[in-house]
Amino acid sequence: MQAWPQPDLTVRFGSATRVMSPDVRNLGKQVAYEMQFWIVDDVLDQIAAGAPIRVDFNAQSRTFHPVPRGQSRLFADRCRALVPAGMRQATR
What we know:
By secondary structure, the chain is an alpha+beta fold. The chain contains 2 helices and 6 strands, in the order ββββαββα. The chain has one domain (9-88).
């Protein structure tokens, strides 16, 4: 059941945390919760290090295994290449 406003969705990439109210999308019989945030170094550092990802929403938590280290570092490096270093410092 969907309710508005949605409760906050918290995503933790190791020690880097992002919290916001998600956008909701109906995909057939499923519901997708979306959130967006800037490409920033604190998140990319945790992804590159292979940190686990934890999601907390509506009094439920789920932890996901980290992406294998070689793939996670490649992903983080490619994200860094998209944004100049001075713009990756924001925590938004």
